[in-house]
């Protein structure tokens, strides 16, 4: 199966295989850890922070199923 781009913001995406972790920090921001560092991810319109985190995790897991 081909690797999949995961959109983090309107201007940035990362490869699913490069993502090491997804978390919500104490300030309510979604932080995606990759092999090259930490990146910020945006929630979609009308989407709560934890819903966005779960969506990202589901997108990553879909790549490996």
Largest sheet: 3 strands, antiparallel
Shape: globular
Rounded average pLDDT: 92
The radius of gyration computed from the alpha-carbon positions, rounded to a whole number of angstroms, is 11 Å
In the predicted model, the low-confidence regions spanning at least 5 consecutive residues are none
Number of beta strands: 5
Fraction in beta strands: 25-35%
**How does the helix and strand content classify structurally?**
alpha+beta
Strand order of the largest sheet: 3-4-5
Order of helices and strands: EEEEEH
Structure annotation, total helices: 1
Helix content: 10-25%
Domain count: the total is 1
Terminal Cα separation, in Å?
Answer: 9 Å
Oligomer: single chain
Helices and strands in order, then pairings?
Layout: E1 5-7, E2 13-15, E3 19-24, E4 30-34, E5 37-41, H1 49-64
Antiparallel strand pairs: 1-2, 3-4, 4-5
Keywords:
65 residues, three-stranded antiparallel β-sheet, alpha+beta
What does this structure look like?
The chain is of the alpha+beta class and 65 residues long. The chain has one domain (5-64). 25% of the residues lie in helices and 34% in strands. The protein is built from one helix and five strands; from the N terminus they run βββββα. The protein has one helix at residues 49-64; strands at 5-7, 13-15, 19-24, 30-34, 37-41. The strands form two sheets. A three-stranded antiparallel sheet has the order 3-4-5, with helices on one face. A hairpin with a 5-residue loop joins strand 3 (19-24) and strand 4. The longest helix has 16 residues, at 49-64. 12% of the residues are buried. The model has no long low-confidence stretch (mean pLDDT 92).
């Amino acid at each position: 199966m081909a690797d999949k781009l995961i959109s983090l913001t309107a201007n940035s995406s990362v490869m699913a295989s490069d993502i090491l972790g997804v978390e919500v920090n104490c300030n309510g921001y979604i932080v995606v850890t990759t092999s090259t560092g930490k990146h910020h991810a945006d929630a979609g319109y009308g989407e709560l922070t934890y819903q966005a985190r779960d969506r990202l995790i589901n997108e990553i897991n879909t790549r490996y199923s």
